[in-house]
Amino acid sequence: MKAFLIDRYGKHSGRIGELPAPDVGDHEVLVRVQAASVNLLDSKISKGEFKLILPYSFPLALGHDVAGVVVRVGSRVEQFKPGDEVYARAPDGHIGTFAEQISVNENALAVKPANISMEEAAALPLVALTAWQVLVETARLKQGQKVFIQAGSGGVGTLAIQLAKHLGAFVATSTSTGNVPWVKALGADVVIDYKHQDFASVLQDYDVVLHSLGADELEKSLKILKPGGQLISISGPPTPQFARAQGFSWVLRLIMGLLSSGIRRKARRKGVGYTFVFMRASGAQLREISTLVEAGSIKPVIDRSFSFDATADALSYVEQGRSKGKVVIKIHSGMAPEGKALI
Questions:
Q1: Domain that holds residue 313
Q2: What DSSP assignment string belongs to 32-65?
C-alpha cells in the first residue's frame, strides 16, 4: 500500500512510498483511509522530538487522525463490522494514518458522526480529544467558571472554545488581529489580540488556563489564575506524574521532574495546580464527542485540504502555525471496498 513515511528523523525527510498491508490483530479493525488530518505532533515526531518517550522503528508512516470505512475486523472485535464509517486518533505506538489502510484497536474507534463528511471527521479526533481531556476530564470545568484558552484559532483552540461554551463556561482566548472576529464567532466571550495586548495584564481571576504555547506564556498564565485554579499544559514541560502514568523509567521520571520543577514550584507558591496532559486515544470519549457534533454543539473547523501526493506540503503548512483550524489530507475517494459508491 502507499503511505507517507520517514526513513529517519530529521526535517523534511518524508516521502510517499510502499509499505506492506497492515496485519489485523484479534481486537483490531482494518480501516480503508478516506481522509486524515495533520497535527503539529506529526511534524515533531518526524523530527525526533518525542523519540525518548515514543520510540518508533523505520520506515515509519506518519499520521494520527483518520476517517474511513471498515474493511475487515479481528476475530474478537465486537463493536464494528465491514462497511461501518468510523473515525479515530490512532493510539501511540501504532500511528500511520497517512496511508491507504491502517489497523486500529477497536477501543480507539468510534462511528463517524452522521452529519459531517469524512474530511470533517478526520479533522476532529486529536484536537477534540485533547480539548475533552483537558476541560472535562482534568479541569472538570463547570458552568460559570472562567477559562482562558490560548491560540484560539488553532486546531485545539477552535474545538476547546466550542466545548467550553457547551459546558457553560466564560471563555477568553488569544489570537492575531485578523482572526479576532472569526474567533468571537466560535463563541469566545473575550478575545485577546496578542499583537497589541498582553493577556496577563487584561485577564484576572480565572479558574482554568489551557496552555498550548511557549515558556513565557506558561509563566504569565500563573498571574491570571485565582487561588485554587488550574494551569493545564499540552505543550509541556511534562511532570513526574505523567511519567509514572506512562510507565517510564526512573531516569525519564527524573528528567521530567527536573524539567517541570520550576513551574510546579511557582504554581504551588501561587496556590494553583499545574498539570501536563498528553492526549491519549479513546473511542469512548469520541462517542461522547460524536453526540455533541450531531447535536450541533461542536463543529469541525477546516482551514484547507491537500491531496495525498501533497502530504509534505500539508506538513509544511501546519509547521508555519498560521492555519485556522485543521488541515486535512484526502487519501481515498468515497468508494467502498467492494467498489460500490458510499451512500
A1: 2-124+300-330
A2: EEEEEEE-HHHHHHHTTTTTTTS---SSEE---E
Residues 169, 184 within the same domain: yes
pLDDT tens per residue across span 2-53: 999 999 998 767 999 999 999 999 999 999 999 999 999 999 999 999 998 8
Q: How many residues does the chain have?
A: 343
DSSP of 278-289 = -----HHHHHHH
- Collapsing DSSP to helix, strand or coil, 342 comes out as coil
Which is nearest to 217 in space by CA: 258, 257, 179, 263? 263
Residues of the chain with pLDDT under 70: 12, 333-343
d(CA 14, CA 28): 27
pLDDT, tens digit (0-9, with 9 covering 90-100), for 28-40: 999 999 999 999 9
261 and 145 within one domain: yes
